Amino acid sequence: MKTEDKNNVAKVRLAVIGKSHVGKSALTVRYLTRRYIGEYRSNTDLLYRQTLNVNNNPLEVEVVDVCSCELSLFPEEAIYWADACVVVYDVTCKESLTHAAELLERVIQLRSQLPIVLLGNKSDLEHLRQVEEVEGRTLAIQNNCQFHEVSVAENSKAIYTSIDSILNECRSVQGTQKTRKFSVSKMIGTLIGSTNGKVAPNTNQGGTVVVCHKADLYRSRILRRRQNFTATASL
Ligand SMILES: Nc1nc2c(ncn2[C@@H]2O[C@H](COP(=O)(O)OP(=O)(O)OP(=O)(O)O)[C@@H](O)[C@H]2O)c(=O)[nH]1
């Protein structure tokens, strides 16, 4: 993709959180690559970058897969950085639902408007089920977020529909915000004869995943801006 096209592609940042072993890495890799990999290293957060085709439009997606979501190490930076959040629990582990409930509370305290989807993973393990679907659905309703039970192992369609839908929601919000800014740049562009505003061709569905160090996230301007905004708002 040419640089000028790349600059016109919307970008959405997603944080995937949940108790250890619920399937966050498997979900992230499944969503981005359509592949299922059984075992992952789990001692580091990973940041993935990929340009996807979401609803027939290219979208640059960054996903941080947070390896430890123990409440004492709540991933505050990831939540400030993200435009949306996926909270995962494991239907075969009751504790993971309690954990998800606590994470949801913390996320909403920090970013009350953040779009969230709650996913109950490992629905293929029906014989080991400890969490009924209605419990997950109730938690989602209480926290005003989307909800699906999925099996990353069995490639549930809801993995794609739910994440696509939340990414689209973010893109629409950004689109509205950008329209205001764009009218100014468009006016300047017209004055100096710029041809900005080309729609990038959709070339990259299923491209490669680049694994980045999470320090990239902590250096990002968006994170500092949102942290400062919250600090100022609470003065
Ligand atoms: N049966 C089944 N196993 C799954 C599913 N998704 C993930 N797993 C398995 O669950 C285990 C944990 O998956 P991970 O993706 O490493 O979980 P994680 O939440 O990233 O774990 P941490 O990195 O420790 O936080 C692995 O053995 C996966 O193969 C699923 O849908 N069904």
From TrEMBL:
E.C. designation(s): 3.6.5.2
Claim: Hydrolase is one of the keywords in the record: yes
Reaction(s) catalysed by this chain's protein: GTP + H2O = GDP + phosphate + H(+)
EC top class, as a word: hydrolase
Molecular-function GO terms, alphabetical: G protein activity
Pfam families: Ras (PF00071)
Keywords: Hydrolase
Hydrolase as UniProt keyword: yes
Family matches, as InterPro entries: P-loop_NTPase, Ras-related_GTPase, Small_GTP-bd, Small_GTPase
Similarity-based family: Belongs to the small GTPase superfamily. Ras family.
PANTHER family named in the record: RAS-LIKE FAMILY MEMBER 11
Record protein name field: small monomeric GTPase
Organism: Cryptolaemus montrouzieri
